[in-house]
Amino acid sequence: MENQMIDSAQTAKFSALNCIDLSSPDIHHSVSLLKQACLDCGFFYVVNHGISQEFMDNVFAQSKRFFNLPESEKMKILRNEKHRGYTPVLDEHLDPENQVHGDYKEGYYIGVEVPKDEIEAEKPFYGPNVWPEPDTLPGWRETMEKFHQEALQVARAVARIIALALDLDIDFFDKPEMLGEPIATLRLLHYGVSGIGHTSDPSKGLFGAGAHSDYGLITLLATDEVLGLQICKDKDAKPQKWEYVSPLKGAFIVNLGDMLERWSNCIFKSTLHRVLGNGQERYSIAYFVEPSHECLVECLPTCKSEKNPPKFPPILCRDYLSQRYMDTHADLNTYSKH
């Protein structure tokens, strides 16, 4: 089966994605490339983003250190109700219609750090992070906190280009209720854990990550060199056609989330994607960027008209995200206490 999966990957179609250079002085060219990508498939590469390759390599190395810990150690920092911490294999179930079980991946959520005395019950995604003990992984927390901060700056730069592509002011998404105080979540991911799901088989409902679209504004994804990510440009096609996205060293793969699709009145696409495991271990680092809890997500003024009225009712960001997480993650009560 593993050889069949590898052979199919070698003959599979690959998606050609636009590449946005954040260091380019030609902002109009960047806007044009991004707009074309958002209208076409909702995925594109971002290069020259300001995070050094040396530091990126260190973040991946630190991620591997965590996932190499014994399962008993990882379960000590199981994710909490604020969506911080470790998510075991099968914790997430992204495509119940086609998956026999959940996703064959494990992960680790790190959000914006909020002191315990500032936690508010109505803010389900603001809270203190949970960390491995310092003597278990020295320097680990400091590395992840630095990456979280640097990735947020990249996301804000991308959001400014998106604003221009939607005929908005360049600082539209910089407002406090948007990316001024965002729900920004770093998630370390590890595929290829030993066991039944080590190699994906769509015909049997086995996936590294089931088909889904992301929930929020944008996602930055850094990957190793192992193939696995696939996108489906037309989710309504029968049968669906899947294309691989090639890893690009030093780049972020960026995709749009459902919230931006709602905001843009479906002008910009939130695209289905999934991960197929081919028998190799695979590591990736996702950075999910959403506006603040209080942000009201409603049709943008540049995306509606008499002939194209809003397709979705307004909704608060916290309500929308809470429901999406509830729909796709296991109930914490299913885990025994550690």
From TrEMBL:
Please verify whether the record's keywords include Zinc-finger.
Answer: no
InterPro entries assigned = DIOX_N, IPNS-like_FE2OG_OXY, IPNS-like_sf, Oxoglu/Fe-dep_dioxygenase_dom
Instruction: Report domain Fe2OG dioxygenase positions.
Output: 182-291
- Source organism, top-level taxon: Eukaryota
SUPFAM superfamilies from the UniProt entry: Clavaminate synthase-like
An example Gene Ontology molecular-function term: metal ion binding
Specify whether Metal-binding is a keyword of the entry.
yes
Q: Which UniProt keywords are listed?
A: Iron, Metal-binding, Oxidoreductase
The record's family statement is: Belongs to the iron/ascorbate-dependent oxidoreductase family.
This protein is called: 2-oxoglutarate-Fe(II) type oxidoreductase hxnY isoform X1
Tell me the organism: Ziziphus jujuba
